[in-house]
């Protein structure tokens, strides 16, 4: 099937994006990420030693299929975000940036104002900007207008594993968006990921649910399959929801026939 | 992985059971059923001409991987169900029977009283009884006590595609059951099937959602993958749901570090 | 408003039925029950000393507005239920009986088979039978057919306070029933009770949610108001759910006008 | 009960705010608004003829209990909003303003960027600003920081009647807010309004659900009661949700006692 996702100038065969946080070891991380077949993997800039080419995380992510997506996690406003992105471009030699600005430490929800400002500026500076945001359809349109190459609305608070609590608004975002929609945060189970794809999301980002599973490699594989399943179902069109029952078999009575 | 499902004396590698209703043609049905890799396929006894070994449906289901599961759809009480089961055993040479007794034509919901009576009798007559029932945990225990080899609680009304509307009670049934629990009816999307497996169901039965899709073969494949994903996730254990956010990356501030 | 609920030969102005369990004292119970304005109050037969006319609970329930509804909680099968009902009729001088048969101590879910048998027998013996059951539409029809004067499907497991987890099936029951439908068990908040009434339930039974509140008298009042609100909304017809937004104000632009 | 809601310098006894759109006539509107006992009623500035003291809507809203809350519905950016607010202050002699900036005509969702800018400016200009916004907790904090006297997050798209689709985020907003939280938009049934109050919202705004009911006066009354019920329950504390059943009556078996 020729069902390629394109963001900026890159093509992706996998619609599962992953992250590098919370794994018990770099070795487990690497195995899980390979099992996921993910081609875009986010790494917190603050966690890598950009001056050290033998940095443990970077070494483990060195693989022909993997594209690095540095993220700005930890910054508190647009200025810090821009500074972090520039540092990242220089050190990691990529102009892709996952823009995360969430000042509050309890719920880690993104700041719409700072994110839009930073996105606008970063686009002008030549970045491919992937902004992590609340599932706010108007904000998504504005980000699109300033040149963000995709939008990454959240399903639920990061790490909560609650699934698509924003479903009502994700549907509107998907309906309106002219750039890819990637559901980020909150996806805690393969069924959530499949559901996002069935709704028409272009990709999902999953980190915690894989990293903290008892078996991260198996869980990565499970997400991979679920996302393929959800995408396949989206393309094949789901059956409509009915309010009355409908027999699978014709309703003529059995013994009177 | 050696994750076999056993019902009575049969072992199943696939946890997707399917049906034969509502397909646009027997050829499409066959392709979709093969794509599903299902090993147990239900067919309404009233739809086959049991005296004709060239019956169109039966011919299309003739495949080494496929076990036939005749169902009693159309019967209105336990007597008709027993009669139908006996007829089926003779004609199709299987003692497996999917017991469906749903007198009401609007919602097609199963009758708990007639189903229990029929199950008890059929077990005594040597049948492997797979009863389709409401997601009633007490009824499930009683069916288990009279010897039903599995229970098949519904997720939502047949053909409604609404998903696991009975989730609260499916969880209790799964918690209590000593026989396999197969979620039957209502599953309308691969995400629903994955969710059933994540809850710990042993298998699911899907028919309408595959048959009425615009692309039944792709949809069958999507269900296959989703069920594998859900089962894998169940075995690997899902991450717990959290009420506060949890960063994937450590929470030290970025630029102060 | 002349919106009377009739069960058997009795008329009720209040659609809130209550219970007597779990209150911190009989005095608090009495105050809360009066605040609820409930006219039908269930009491576990096993908790009253039927030989003692000064039994504490009975004394506290002695009020012109209150009708007692003895329940069979604690019985395990239809024979015990019939025996209990007869004992109750003799001692408490009422032929009304709330039929509860739930053998399993963990989830306290009702047994459909024993309940139907007991209901049929009790109706013949002249009882007004109010059966507590799973939200099983077929069972409800069968109870109606044997002469039960109402049906009492559960919203969620007793004492769970989870609300209308069986909503999908309650709607079918309400659609089909020719006897009053009283939602019993699981209602944990006034909003749940209002919702049940909005769906068209004839009454609700609430016990735990009132009894274990920090302020049972205020909570009883809250349920009373919510049920009136829900009933009023049902009669006034709710606005339909829309999939696009609709402005409350006309959509002509403001400053161009 | 001394449970007063204070916004800026005004005290409210009713926690139901209403609107004036979509009623079939001004007479019906007036009756319904009086039945609601609402003390704060929003009116689209674009719908009133501010130069005509005999304007039909304004005449019907002239009542000692009613405070007018002009809204900026129809404006597309912060400049238009400020202009509209100033016009409104002059004509209607109130410095209260409901700030609504929703450029998109299909879903009418509010613009976070323009709303924050307008709120900041309007506060400086001496307005009591009540901003209608997405249920975005970070945006709510920022509005609070610039001096908005309350926040008005949406439950679902305006006029959709879908209820509290943003519940997950409303809970966070309520947890964090130091100004009153008023749930605006999407509330389609009294049970939704009760639920908002049970979660701890300070008030709700309801318009469509009352105006388009078959009986707006009865529906207004139903909302009034439901909101009182929900608030009362919030103050009395709801019983916790349990995962196992809990009998209302002690679990000693009946006949063995």
Helix content of chain A: 25-40%
Instruction: Please give the count of helices of chain A.
Output: 9
Estimate the global geometry of chain A from the Cα principal axes: globular
Please identify which CATH superfamily of chain A we are dealing with.
Aldolase class I
C-alpha Rg of chain A (nearest Å): 20 Å
Instruction: Determine the N-to-C terminus distance of chain A.
Output: 45 Å
Query: Taking strands numbered 1, 2, ... along the chain, how are they ordered across the largest sheet of chain A?
Result: 5-4-3-10-9
CATH fold-level label of chain A: TIM Barrel
CATH architecture of chain A: Alpha-Beta Barrel
Give the averaged pLDDT of chain A, no decimals: 91
Number of domains of chain A: 1
Instruction: Give the strand content of chain A.
Output: 15-25%
Give me the secondary-structure category of chain A: alpha/beta
How does the major sheet of chain A shape up?
Answer: 5 strands, parallel
Order of helices and strands of chain A: EEEHEHEHEHEHEHEHEHH
CATH class of chain A: Alpha Beta
């Amino acid at each position: 099937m020729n069902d390629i996702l394109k963001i900026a100038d890159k093509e992706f065969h996998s619609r599962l994006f992953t992250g590098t946080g919370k794994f018990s070891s770099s070795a487990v991380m690497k195995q899980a990420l390979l099992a996921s077949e993910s081609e875009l993997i986010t790494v917190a800039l603050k966690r890598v030693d950009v001056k050290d080419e033998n940095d443990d995380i970077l070494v483990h992510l060195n693989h022909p299929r993997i594209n690095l997506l540095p993220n700005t996690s930890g910054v508190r406003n647009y200025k810090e975000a821009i500074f972090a992105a520039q540092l990242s471009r220089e050190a990691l030699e990529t102009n892709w940036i996952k823009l995360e600005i969430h000042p509050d430490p309890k719920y880690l929800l993104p700041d719409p104002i700072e994110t839009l400002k930073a996105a606008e500026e970063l686009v002008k500076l030549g970045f491919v900007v992937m902004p992590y945001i609340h599932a706010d359809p108007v904000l998504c349109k504005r980000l699109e207008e300033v040149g963000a190459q995709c939008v990454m609305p959240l399903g639920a608070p990061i790490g909560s594993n609650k699934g698509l609590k924003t479903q009502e608004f994700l549907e509107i975002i998907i309906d309106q968006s002219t750039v890819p929609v990637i559901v980020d945060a909150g996806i805690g189970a393969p069924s959530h990921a499949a559901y996002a794809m069935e709704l028409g999301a272009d990709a999902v980002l999953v980190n915690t649910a894989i990293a903290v599973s008892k078996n991260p490699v198996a869980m990565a594989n499970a997400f991979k399959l679920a996302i393929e399943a959800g995408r396949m179902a989206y393309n094949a069109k789901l059956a409509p929801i009915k309010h009355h029952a409908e027999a699978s078999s014709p309703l003529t009575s059995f013994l009177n026939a």
